[in-house]
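Entry for the shared binder. Reason: the reviewer on the internal report wants the predicted structure included alongside the sequence.
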Amino acid sequence: MYVIAMYDVGKKRVSKMLKLCRRYLNWIQNSVFEGEITEVKLEELKMHALDIMDESKDSLIIFKTRQEKWLDKEIVGHERQNLDTIL
């Protein structure tokens, strides 16, 4: 599946969440990530995120779609990371 994930966590936890999310997805903007991921890996990501987060203050939001082709994406301005793969 293809997901877009974003987090909002306290300052002390930002670097840990960034490192965690980068292990599973592509970092596209500050606390926003996207990419293909399996159900198992997504559950693993959420489990590790809960270990970092303060559930009373922090959040992780995940949007899911079957494939990236079902999502219209438009970038206005500078793209942080070009995800095109050159073979």
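Summary line for the report: Helices lie at 14-24, 39-52.
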